[in-house]
Amino acid sequence: MAVQKFTDKQKPAILFVHNTLMWYTQPFFVKLSEIYDVKFVFTHAVLSKDIYGVEMASQLPGFGDVTYKVLKNYFGIAFGVIKELLKNYDLVVDSLGSIEALFSFMIAKLRRKPIIFWSEHWGWKGGAASPFARFVVPRSNAIFVPGSKHREFFISLGISPNKVFIVPNASNMTGRDGDSDEKEQLKRELKIGQRKVILYVGRLVKQKGVEYLMEAFHELRKERNDVTLLIVGEGECRKHLELLSRELNLADSVYFTGFIKNTNLPAYYLLGDVCVMPSINYGQADAWGFVLNEAMHFGKPVIATDAVGAAYDMIKDGINGFIVPEKDAHALFEAMKRILSDSELAKRMGEESRRIIEQAFTYEHMVQGFSRAVESVLTP
Prior knowledge:
By secondary structure, the protein is α/β, with parallel strands linked by helices. It has helices spanning 26-35, 47-52, 80-85, 99-110, 131-136, 148-156, 179-190, 210-221, 238-247, 265-271, 290-297, 311-314, 329-340, 343-360, 363-378; strands at 13-18, 37-42, 67-70, 91-95, 115-118, 142-145, 164-166, 196-201, 227-232, 254-258, 274-277, 302-305, 321-324.
């Protein structure tokens, strides 16, 4: 489906309420601004720093002519969103899971304006499965989600299937000159030599299930000593994981890098032979998993558990990687062993990963999905 182009007089006016701006959503928002008369209102800018250590500024470089406003919080609530909701617009877009979503829903309904909710969650034990969500979701004009599991989840909350639209997540991480040189420098610094590298990138928190990856790596090390586990990221579980590596006698083959800036991550993806996301259900499933987008962009085989939302749409089991049961260290071991033991298979999987990204997970695909949702709501 081609994205509809509008003249300035035809452009629908959209109020897009969102919690914060992440590096991977910025290109999406810029592209939407080229098509629609859209104003972005960010209600909880601090979240980007709290979760990822990346602070959102009031003035955003690279945001071009995008119209946006960063609201202040009082007692954890961005009351300024009410004023924005009372202005002229044709459509409201908001995310579920915050008090501001209640404001958006109530004011849109009172003003008889259509409202679309955006959510990346699935398998929640609370949050989006709350009584509020169960009331709001079936009464929304549309929902857009990143993947098939998310779609199933919101249909289970009572909304009609033809009102749920997939807007596949994309990442703006790309290669740059010097990445290969930086990769070789990393190999020298870590003294990796010709060893195979198993890569983990992400926060070191309970939900990410890194301890299961370490147990799987321990099993792998019993069979071969030419492997290294590279753990990229920071978080509250780091000390526990470092202790676990010593208890398993893996200290000589497990490397903790700490936080690495996005601009430096490509070298790590290039260094990896396989990228693993061992997430578990911990209160809720892992919403998406942009690490899969990034690793696949760099042509890597990927392994993820069935607690990773992106896995169901991005991994073709046995083709570009494997999906394994959560909390199953032996299944992780078997998947890693199979890829690392067959260089031709690893190469084919990496090539397929890159093809999947190009065919279904670009910002153009995001815009197309969003446009389908908007047109379904605004077309008489």
